[in-house]
Write a structure and sequence with these properties.
Blueprint: E1 2-5, E2 16-19, E3 29-39, H1 41-47, E4 67-74, E5 86-89, E6 102-106, E7 111-112, H2 119-123, H3 126-139, E8 147-150, H4 156-167, E9 171-176, H5 181-187, E10 191-194, H6 200-203, E11 207-212, H7 217-222, E12 226-234, H8 241-246, E13 250-253, H9 260-271, E14 279-284, H10 288-296, E15 303-307
Parallel strand pairs: 8-9, 8-11, 9-10, 11-12, 12-13, 14-15
Antiparallel strand pairs: 1-2, 3-4, 3-6, 3-15, 4-5, 5-7
Helix pairs in contact: 3-4
Amino acid sequence: MRAIRLNEYGSVDKLKLENIPRPEPKDKEILIKVHAAGINPVDWKIIEGKASDKFPIKLPITPGWDLAGVIEEVGKSVKSFRAGDEVFCKPDLDRDGAYAEFIVVPEHIVSYKPTNISFTDAASVPLAGLTAWQGLFQYGNLKKGEKVLIHAASGGVGSLAVQFAKSKGAYVIGTCSTDNVSFVNKLGADEVIDYTKQNFEDDLKEIDLVFDTIGGETQQKSLLVLKEGGRLISIVGAQFEQEAKAKNIRLEAFMSKPNKSQLDEIAALIQDGSVIPAVSGVYSLEETAQALRESANGHVRGKLVLRVF
């Protein structure tokens, strides 16, 4: 099968499209024919060696940990799925990913793909969706009626977070650039702050939860808008713990993990039209490096996706 291979850390231009043996599923595993694979910042960070401390993977490896496809074969102990089922999932980072024609994954992380969206749209959801879901609800404990500030609300994680928070009845405020204000409004945000024209820390107060996807100065300033006892949940590290403690704010960082039940809930929201994935670019396997370079620029609206089949 064709697969993008990372043989050594470095520039995304070091990636090679190779022919490698098709993997075989074990008893509780599923072989999926990959129709599309999502592009995520963690991909190019791993490829460039910038995340090797967090994700000590063994090379060579196929990157890409976001996918949608059709089940080709199931292991003999698999009970929930069968060949021909349309599925999507977020594979673990410590094994071959989805920049390939086929991938083997454990049964317990796989969910049925919503039938009302394409494979390319579905492939954009699992990693970003689980990151948003876990940040808002598992770690952030967001409740109906609470105010949540979502940074980078037009990005892959942020655009889903806005929709998830609205679906649960929260009051949603998103930050983004001028070009994306209309987009974030359409996602359902109650307020949108254009960070090129406004300082969110001057305009907001008494926020219950901040979902931080940026870190640095943005995380530090977020402490100023939270109410006492508020929560600041970050996907880029807890960088101002002493300042947060002084203000009685819970600052916590996390890394998302595969979770079938949560992905099932996300799929249900997509199926009923409450959530719509946003894909701004589709590339071929041959264009993987180009897609990763665009992702690394940091201004992608929604997600980029590789179309494999």
